[in-house]
Design a protein that fits this description.
This protein starts with 7 loop residues before the first strand and ends in a 12-residue tail after the last strand. The chain is elongated. It is mainly β and about 70 residues long. Strands 2-1-3 form a 3-stranded antiparallel sheet, with no helix packed on it. Strands 4-5 form a two-stranded antiparallel sheet. The protein contains no helices and 5 strands.
């Protein structure tokens, strides 16, 4: 018996912040969601722990603000 697994990368979201990323077969996703308020597929996206999620898009909090003026 041979079973093919289709793995996908997901972000686990809590309080609008990525708390973890996992690679899992979507059929088994339920066992990873205990602490998360949302689980979002991030295949092909450069998203990591600490990124923000507003319900539609991810925001990298580690980038410099482009409009910042020197002191």
């Amino acid at each position: 018996y041979f079973q093919v697994l289709f793995m996908t990368i997901f972000a686990l979201i809590k309080n609008g912040t990525v708390i973890n990323t996992i690679v899992v077969d979507p059929q088994h996703l339920g066992s990873f969601s205990a602490d998360a308020e949302a689980i979002v597929s991030i295949d092909g996206l450069p998203v990591g722990v600490g990124w923000l999620y507003d319900g539609e898009k991810f925001i990298n909090p580690y980038t410099e603000v482009e409009d910042a003026k020197p002191l």
